[in-house]
Write a structure and sequence with these properties.
The protein is built from 10 helices and 10 strands. With about 240 residues, the chain is α/β, with parallel strands linked by helices. The strands form 2 sheets. Strands 6-7-8-3-9-10 form a 6-stranded mixed β-sheet, with helices on both faces. The chain binds adenosine-5'-triphosphate (ATP). Belongs to the ABC transporter superfamily.
């Protein structure tokens, strides 16, 4: 289990997280939704070790992650798809995908999975030899997700993967996430697209102004009106 306990994060005078606790059981699909500036990216970046918390802890299967260097965390157990699709623009699509498999030892299977990713995201197959920097934003997002998946992480962390994508591509992103979940990958999905996320995840948290203000299954959050309340109360 991935466990975040009482995380408190500040950027100088700006407090981004005010004692956030969440749990991602192994094999589960957990959503974190909330309005702009709620602290969603900060939460993921702190779990991945990119941002250091002021207090609180992140533990994975009982071992403390907080304080470990990002590169020791990401790649070993967790794979983060950051906001804003950081791909290597000068490298080809195929080279970007191959980079995603460098942490793996099963080279032969890794090659098969690259081919699989090109079937899941056909555009990546079509443009495999094209420089990634020449792809559109939506295509780059598909590449960023595919690359993270190729590390075959136990926990896949995604920061707003649907941002800026055409609806049909958003559908395929959610389909891929559901499939991975069925295959046993634990997923922590941070999104502004609240309804869809809550309906897809087993369990979701609503973040507002750095606090968890609601949590539950889709029916608990939707029937209780908790989701709307969090978004309406945000401004
Ligand atoms: P969005 O959906 O807009 O990405 P978010 O929910 O991911 O928002 P964060 O990006 O985590 O929210 O930001 C939380 C708060 O921390 C905001 O008030 C934001 O302005 C602030 N913040 C984030 N990064 C920094 C930074 N590097 N320096 C200063 N303040 C920051």
């Amino acid at each position: 289990m991935l466990e975040v306990d009482s995380l408190y994060v500040a950027y100088g005078p700006v407090t981004a997280l005010r004692g956030v606790s969440i749990k991602v059981e192994k094999g589960s699909f957990v959503g974190v939704v909330g309005p702009n500036g709620a602290g969603k990216s900060t939460l993921l970046n702190t779990i991945a070790g990119v941002v250091k918390p002021k207090s609180g802890s992140v533990t994975l299967a009982g071992s403390k992650l907080s304080g470990a260097r990002a590169e020791h965390i990401v790649g070993k157990h967790l794979s983060l798809v950051p906001e804003g699709r950081r791909i290597f623009g000068q490298m080809t699509v195929l080279e970007n995908l191959q980079l995603g498999t460098t942490v793996r030892k099963d080279r032969e299977q890794a090659r098969t999975h690259i081919t699989e990713m090109m079937e899941v995201f056909p555009i990546l197959g079509r443009f495999r030899d094209r420089r990634a920097g020449h792809l559109s934003g939506g295509e780059q997002q598909q590449l960023a997700i595919a690359r993270a998946l190729l590390a075959r992480p136990e926990y896949l962390l995604l920061d707003e993967p649907s941002a800026g994508l055409a609806p049909v591509i958003v559908d395929s992103v959610f389909e891929v996430l559901k499939r991975l979940h069925n295959e046993g990958v634990s997923i922590l999905l941070v999104e502004q697209v609240a309804h869809r996320t809550v309906e897809t995840a087993d369990h979701s948290y609503v973040l507002q102004h750095g606090n968890i203000v609601a949590r539950g299954t889709a029916s608990e959050l939707l029937q209780g009106g908790l989701l709307e309340a969090a978004y309406l109360g945000a401004d």
